[in-house]
Amino acid sequence: MSETLRFEAFSSMVEPEFWSGLAHHKLHSARLDTARAVVRGEFSGGRRHAVRGNSTEPTQRLAVPARLRVNQGAWEAVQGNTQQQTGAVGVNGYLHNTNTIEEFKKRDKGELLRDAGAEILEAIRSGRATQAPELLWPFLLLSFADLKKYHFYHWFAFPAVTADPPDMATEPPAPLSSFVSRSSDLEHLLTTFAGTSVCAQGAFVARYYPSNAGNPWRVGPLSEWSEIYGSGKAEDGGIALLGFVDPSSHSTRPGWPLRNLLTWLRHCHPEATNVNVLCFRDTALLAGGPVDGATLVQQCESIVLRVNVTSVVSLTSECQVSGWERNEKQKLVPRIVNLSSTMDPVRLAESALDLNLQLMRWRLAPSIDLAKIAGTRALLVGAGTLGAYTARVLLAWGMRKITFVDNGRVSFSNPARQPLYDFEDSLDGGKPKAEAAASSMRKIFPNIDSQGIQMTIPMPGHSISASEMDSTRATVARLDELVASHDVIFLLTDSRESRWLPTLLGTLHRKIVICVALGFDSYVAMRHGVYAHDDDFGPMGAPKAADSSEAVRLGCYFCNDVVAPTDSLSDRTLDQQCTVTRPGLAPIASGTAVELLTTILQHPQGGHAPPAAPGANDSAGEFGDPEHQIRGYLIGFRQHAIVGQASSLCTACSPSVINAYRQHGFDFLLRAFNNTLVSEDAPHCAAEDGADAPADYSYLETLTGLAALHRQTDTMLETIEWSESDDDFEAI
User: pTM (2 decimals)?
Assistant: First the structure.
């Protein structure tokens, strides 16, 4: 007795890695684009699971849902470029990812199904589905990814063209093991499938010859319908079958793919009105080793149906299409996956940080190179107010390597002004600032590589005693190593002379150096000029030629000074010992300095980028041309951009200083720290006419030529005749 053919619907099975891929796709590829994207899925033959009972109950075989699997490999959407299980059928899916939850809810689900159905019908009419049967079984995925909470709203659909009137099953399903004449015929069928690719295509045509024990099966793709199936009659003693890989494990219901396969049949071969359908479910046996016939009879899950196929009336885009997935309660509702509770909190924090940065690329700065910023290694010399704010802004930009250098300890006055410290850090004499700052950064963002180096930086004008010689030498070597191993050096200390040695080392290693200094209500954030090549320092021990590229290099923090840095820390009153500034100034200056750095990093010339030309509107950098100096004032809330050339007489970055360090090393530094002149060891430091340098000029001033400039200026002033008579003024 005939009855309506009923089908076992697909059930989606999504691995968590797929959602991570969706998050990556949203952030890095799709962004705000809602155009559909191709993903891959797969299904294989359905099998019942054996459930063992107790000693008095026999083992039961329970059906499981027909699964369509979507995993991490779904994003390798090139057809045939994905790895799938042996015997599995790979199919294309169409991802429709929305930008908002409202858009997800309002999306016309019927329209999506109709469009997918129209594509299936077109593939049938054009003959493409005959060559590639997987085109009969696309799936849809409507989704919204809430990447702040890691919630993924989604709804799968498996479009199927509805037969009207429905197809009929004219006989009860027969197990394949009872359909064949011999158990060895099952072995031959598996061997045939293993030797061809028809099973991986998902659909095939077959002819079974019961009387031919040696070669009972002939199997081929749908394109060989005429050769294998023919008229479907058994004049040659064979039984013709239309076959497909059946994901269903239900005892009587075939899987969802048969619906569109019958649509293909009624259009391409309308003469086939009564067909035998082989629902092949034993794909798992293809992956194992050889199995004897008796075992196959016990394990075989495949069934054979006799189907009366509805004749085709019209195959148009108006055909009814169904297929949205139902939940466990058989309701048509979307689903939500919450991965926040299952994911590593550290990974969630990293994803959340990257999310805010990636959003810039969606609309505002599509060409920004975030990887370059994240890979930049920052050395912060000074872990006080400026250091704390600078570190936080660097972290907000996604930098993963930040090192602090400081010699102080956290005091009770620090936590209120310096956001990396709390009250506990100031107890028991205070924790070392550099180490406390690094620890705080790791608490804020565990994936950051942050270290704190407790170090007192040697400074000009601060004499080094004999007992301090070895430790000072080790400190200089350690600081040189730190500068060489980082990409950008921030000078954030609260004295001028403490910036001198890092400036020299940053110049020597040709690093990006950014200096920030505060007044009471004013600040400066500036970048130091970078030598283009090592040989730009000039020959060892000789000053740089005046016509060289050094003339166009930007100046450093010390280039405008006409005196060398000296001891400014001794004999200070309480207000001079503390950094007395308006509280809102430090975050402004620190933020400006970090934004100056990101502008440099996003410029194709990097640290060699020229400052913005007055009135110029075009720039090669994503954020424009980086300024040389930004000076800001809270009085009137003014800000100015200033450009200054490097000075050949600079006590920190001039070729004479760099070459003196290259030639004499620590001995040169020791003279600068102690302000000692030894003319015979450093003939370039000798005063004019062979006389010793005057005692009122420092070693660095004598070395660079500033002392000579002062003497020339004094000489010129002495020769000027000043007149105080009114008769010398010209009437206007």
Answer: 0.73
